[in-house]
Structure formats: structure tokens, C-alpha cells
Amino acid sequence: MEINSEDRIETFIRENRESFEMDGPPEEHSARFLYKLNYKLSHLISIVPYLVKVAVATILIFVASLVIWNNYLRKDRNEITFKEKVVMVVRSAFRKALT
User: Fold this and answer.
1) Residue 9: inside a domain
2) Of 12, 59, 66, 85, which one's alpha carbon is 20 to 30 angstroms from that of 42?
3) Which of 20, 18, 14 lies closest to 6 in space, CA to CA?
4) pLDDT in tens, 5-39
């Protein structure tokens, strides 16, 4: 019968239990942890203004491109719209009904 690694680890922990209970993290551990956490948060916060600027620039470019496309580049901008076509058909039908 083979002893798997989980049994060996469990046995090691049971045999050395007092070492695990007596030895804690070093005193400077919490200070290093808080420093690293603060560094990561400040690094993330320092990026946010740039991301906001990029988002605003993207929205402005998108809106400007829609306006330019609609007013200057659209092929059917000089053609009659569907609404105008419907109004013309209704008026002509109304005129025929009156005559």
C-alpha cells in the first residue's frame, strides 16, 4: 500500500504542530503587505484620469465622425426620405379622391 502525498503532508503537519503554532509571520510582514497594497492601489488610481481622457476623446471622435458622415459623405443625403415619400403618396391619393 502506497502512501500518497496528502497523507505525508498531513503526517508532517501533525508531527510539527507546535512549530506551526509558535512561529508566526515576521513583524515587518504586515507593514510590507500594506505597502504593496497601497502601491498597487495608487498605481491603479493614477491611471484612471488617463483612461477617462481616452474615453472622452473616443466619444468625441465617434460623434464627429457620425456628423461628418451624415452631412457630407452619405450617398443618399440629397434623395427624398421615406417620410417625404409617404407624405407625397398620401397627398396624391387625397387629391385623386377629391377629383
Assistant:
1) no
2) 59
3) 14
4) 778 888 888 888 877 766 677 778 888 888 888 87
Query: Amino acid identity, residue 20?
Result: F
Cell numbers of 39, please? 502601491
| CA dist list (Å): 5 to 8, 9, 11, 12 | 5, 6, 10, 10
Kindly state the DSSP code that residue 4 receives in the 8-state scheme.
P
Residue at 36: amino acid letter: K
Structural domain includes residue 14: no
Cell (9 digits) for 95 = 387629391
Do residues 13 and 20 lie in contact, with contact meaning Cβ atoms separated by under 8 Å? yes
For residue 68, what are the domain limits?
29-98
Residue 60 counted as domain residue:
yes
pTM of the predicted protein model: 0.40
